[in-house]
Design a protein that fits this description.
By secondary structure, the chain is mainly α. The protein has helices at 13-22, 27-34, 38-45, 53-63, 67-70, 80-86, 91-98, 102-109, 117-127, 131-142.
Length: 150
């Protein structure tokens, strides 16, 4: 899997700490078992850093929880990007599955490019959901309000 450049949206450092402690693991233990360094785990838990989807997937697997338990995105704001990242996938992973370049998939995920029926069907399979849900996720990104310019 490819590692995305940006951190996971919705990541909850407090929840990671709680689950790690519930499992009786130290930061060192979690790091060793997941292949993530102690310093990285510490920076996530203190809010100084945030994980990539693939790194958080490894940590969640060791903890025996779903990524969505450590990165909560409310239903009303979920998009293709949040569904992708909660599964520990990078844009390049999805782009490859769809036969698209990463930049083309990125535009699709941001709602800047139309979603074809074939892409919708493949995404529904990847995300284990319905085509209607995929279209709703795409539409949410497509209709999002613009960001103020500086």
């Amino acid at each position: 899997m490819s590692v995305p450049r940006r951190a996971l949206y919705g990541f909850d450092p407090t929840r990671l700490t709680e689950v790690r402690r519930e499992r009786g693991l130290s930061r060192s233990d979690l790091g060793r078992l997941s292949g993530v360094t102690y310093n990285t785990i510490r920076s996530w838990e203190t809010g100084e850093g945030a994980p990539s989807p693939s790194a958080l997937e490894r940590v969640a697997s060791v903890l025996g929880v779903a990524v969505s338990e450590l990165a909560v995105v409310p239903d009303g704001v979920q998009t293709l990007a949040s569904w992708r990242t909660r599964q520990g996938l990078a844009q390049a992973d999805i782009a490859h599955e769809l036969g698209l370049s990463k930049s083309t998939y990125s535009r699709l995920e941001r709602g800047e490019r139309p979603l074809t029926d074939a892409e919708c069907l493949k995404l529904a399979h990847i995300f284990e959901t319905t085509e209607e849900q995929v279209r709703a996720l795409w539409m949410r990104a497509h209709r999002r309000s613009g960001r103020p310019t500086r």
